[in-house]
Write a structure and sequence with these properties.
By secondary structure, the chain is α/β, with parallel strands linked by helices. The chain has 13 helices and nine strands. It is globular and about 60 Å long.
């Protein structure tokens, strides 16, 4: 029997969190295949995962360390499910919501992309922010891109919200960069031009655990890895600039996503505060203009594009303040 869903769990030194992730998906249905990809861990990750293998609950794939992208690549290569969901080892899924997802996928086996909500489970924050897609996507009905609405600033499609048809990921030839952080942005963007059918199931499926000091999305960590953020940002720009898109509303969404990631990169470069970082910010926008002048105009003169490029020291302070407000409002790191 072909599984309805493969859940790929990339895991690197995740022994402290992996059981919570696995317990949220195993044993729910024989139609769920769980693949743990141990990405060269040096702690007890593999031993913990093997205990689930011994109970017939998961498959374990082991590889030398290649980073988050390499682990997703391996999971995709070995997945047998009709659809695929990535679950990071320190996050978890809501089982009731997952039951609803499985029912939807059974009814629509040819669905290219199922979108669901995710919840920021931020350390020390009692009120948990839920990212929903109401307004942009009519819920619980088959959709094509021409039936999508305008996405709000917080409504860009993060990996946590997405369940792709496995064949779509393979048809697009998805291969994420190795030894690079933040490749989930590529996972959420590159396959979209192959997506013809969408469905928004407004359940709170993915619980996104953030706020640990060592986490890759923590601002202090992102500042140390700006080269990787910029690499991913540029790969996104290249893809959007070079990939023909026939659906106007998909093109509009791709600009929206590009706008947000360019703004994040710009604010981080401003926060870095060095002359080199500020020059790198100018180079980012210059490269965007060279790659696609029309995309540049749309993104640069959008609200976020303008906020990210306010002139002078005072302007940069205002840019960072606006970013702080967004952090408090949405609840991200």
């Amino acid at each position: 029997m072909t599984p309805v869903l493969t859940v790929v769990v990339p895991a690197y030194n995740a022994a402290d969190y992996l059981a919570r992730a696995l317990d949220s998906v195993v044993g729910l249905s024989p139609e769920v295949e769980v693949l743990v990809v141990d990405d060269g861990s040096t702690d007890g990750t593999a031993v913990l995962a093997q205990s689930y293998v011994d109970r017939g609950l998961v498959r374990l794939l082991r590889q030398p360390n290649g980073g988050h992208g390499a682990a997703i690549n391996t999971g995709l290569a070995h997945a047998t499910g009709t659809h695929l969901k990535v679950l990071d080892a320190d996050d978890w899924l809501d089982r009731d919501a997952l039951t609803a997802v499985l029912a939807t996928l059974r009814e629509q086996p040819d669905l290219d992309l199922l979108i669901s909500n995710f919840v920021y489970e931020k350390v020390g924050k009692k009120h948990k922010t839920v990212v929903r897609y109401d307004g942009a996507l009519p819920p619980r009905e088959p959709l094509t891109w021409d039936r999508t609405g305008t996405f709000a600033k917080r409504q860009y499609l993060m990996m946590h919200a997405l369940t792709y048809r496995t064949a779509v990921l393979r048809a697009v030839g998805l291969r994420l960069p190795e030894h690079t952080f933040y490749v989930d942005n590529l996972y959420a963007l590159i396959p979209l031009h192959r997506v013809r059918s969408l469905y928004y199931l407004d359940v709170d499926l993915y619980r996104y655990f953030i706020g640990r000091a060592d986490q890759s999305v923590q601002e202090s960590v992102m500042l140390r890895r700006l080269d990787q953020q910029l690499r991913v940002n540029w790969l996104m720009i290249e893809h959007v600039a070079r990939t023909p898109v026939a659906e106007p509303r998909l093109a509009r969404y791709l600009r929206h996503h590009t706008e947000i990631i360019c703004a994040v990169s710009s604010i981080l470069l401003i926060r870095a505060g060095t002359e080199e970082a500020l020059a790198e910010k100018d180079r980012l926008w210059s490269r965007l203009r060279s790659a696609d002048p029309m995309l540049y105009r749309r993104v640069r003169w959008s609200a976020l594009g303008q906020i990210s490029n306010l002139p002078g020291r005072t302007g940069r302070r205002v840019s960072v303040l606006a970013y702080r407000v967004a952090q408090r409002t949405i609840g991200f790191s």
